[in-house]
Amino acid sequence: MTIVTAEPTEIAPSPAALRPDGSPRSYTVRTLGCQMNVHDSERLSGSLEAAGYVAAEDADGADVIVINTCAVRENAANKLYGNLGYLAGVKREREGMQIAVGGCLAQKDQGTIVEKAPWVDVVFGTHNMGSLPALLERARHNHEAQVEILESLETFPSTLPTKRDSASSGWVSISVGCNNTCTFCIVPALRGKEKDRRPGDILAEVQALVDDGAIEVTLLGQNVNTYGVEFGDRQAFGKLLRAMGEIEGLERVRFTSPHPAAFTDDVIAAMAETHNVMPSLHMPLQSGSDTVLKAMRRSYRSKKFLGILDAVRERIPDAAITTDIIVGFPGETDADFEDTLRVVEQSRFSSAFTFQYSIRPGTPAATMDGQLPKAIVQERYERLLALQERISLEENHAQIGRTVEVLVSVGEGKKDAATRRLSGRAEDNRLVHFAVPEGAEEPRPGDTVTVQVTAAAPHFLIADLTGTYAVRRTRAGDAWDRRQAESCGVPAPAAAGAPRAVSLGLPTLRTRDTR
């Protein structure tokens, strides 16, 4: 059995990171796909910077362009080849430019990418992200494309160097891979069987993020609530959530995505009883039809799914629940689709990610009978979307008048000069655009504000000037200040008592017991 190391992965400086004049080459990473890909991209950025590259100020002018791909969503695959087609012309005009393609689609297509786009320099898979700097150097030295796809995990992504996009929030992988066999999904073939990290390693990484200023952490896994299956503890995920509550300075804990079939009462209890686990839950439905769920090999039925939501809301009445739904799965009848509409109506999701089924080569569903015409899938999709938009608006309207605490973010929405609005996420993960009163303190990204909801739309809440407004300065806001000062070349002393920043891999865990 392959032993997956939990030790920090060191990335050596690379000669390929330097231009002929000795200055560092620049890079940019473009991410296609899910939250796991976003987390992977932070590790790719960290690995490149450990090797000596610098982030490009102008992404379009980068010396190295890395595309981190998805094989699950059809538009992500289309985007890859669209991006590569455009970059072919750019590369002809820019001497020394390199293009690397990694992630799920690279794992799946392997040499096909170089056949379709021979101007690509490096292709690497989901199991060897830390090899990117070495592969770029090899491609430069050999003057030919390097394709390296491993069939099993080389190292946990979280042991690689990282460059986090946010000072206040971080992603932490608790497992990789998946043991399920959903007929529409190719992830198990690309990321392998589930491998769980040791609890101590996870807690060490979370502690390191908190020491670096983060106050919010999202736990990641293809099926987070099956965490522990590899070492024989089926209640390990609930225990892990409870351990999060013991980490001083960690204010918000989220996780994605659980699987309904393995969602147990001990997890609901841990969510309800752990002060920093947020009242938000992403619970993928996929279909409300028991017939379709069986064809999908989803080992639960609609009654069990609705029972989970009832149990969560009984313990956590204010929980905002989101979901994933696929429309037009092979063999889906009008009656099946009506079942989906019924379950969506009963579920009262705050929002839903809805997808039109499309054939993904290599999945069992791709060769099933009953593939539906595009026109039927489109019509059903539009009906589902209209239903969920109505429900989302109704659920958000119910928030009007509530006082919420918002973690101020960067990039959630543009500042509105007319209303002086900023944006962030409430504890239940709803997006809130809030106004800053004239003359009031303006929060930094990472600070929190307490505001009163005054209006709502299907996808966001508004808090204007008629209610509460209070700013709480946080360690995450201090960390944002330090980042801003350092990016301007002005070293910023850490706030009194603030710990050092994290650079490579898993830093040493502080000596106090966090459990």
Q: Report the helical percentage.
A: 25-40%
First-to-last CA distance: 30 Å
Strand order in the largest sheet: 19-20-17-16-15-18-21
**Number of helices in the DSSP assignment:** 14
Give the overall pLDDT as a whole number: 86
Helix/strand/pairing category: alpha/beta
- The total strand number stands at 21
Low-confidence parts lasting 5 or more residues at pLDDT below 50? 1-5, 491-515
What's the alpha carbon Rg, rounded to whole Å? 23 Å
Choose one word for the global shape.
globular
Largest sheet: 7 strands, mixed
Explain the overall architecture.
It is a single chain. The protein has 515 residues and is of the alpha/beta class. Helices cover 32% and strands 18% of the residues. It has helices at 35-50, 74-93, 104-109, 111-116, 132-142, 187-191, 199-211, 236-244, 265-273, 290-295, 302-315, 334-347, 374-397, 475-487; strands spanning 26-31, 54-55, 64-69, 98-103, 122-124, 146-148, 169-173, 175-176, 195-196, 216-220, 252-256, 280-282, 320-327, 351-356, 403-408, 421-426, 431-435, 448-452, 455-457, 460-463, 469-472. A 7-stranded mixed β-sheet has the order 19-20-17-16-15-18-21, with helices on one face. A 6-stranded parallel β-sheet has the order 2-1-3-4-5-6, with helices on both faces. A hairpin with a 2-residue loop joins strand 19 (455-457) and strand 20. Helix 12 runs parallel beside helix 13 (374-397). The model is unreliable at 1-5 and 491-515 (pLDDT under 50).
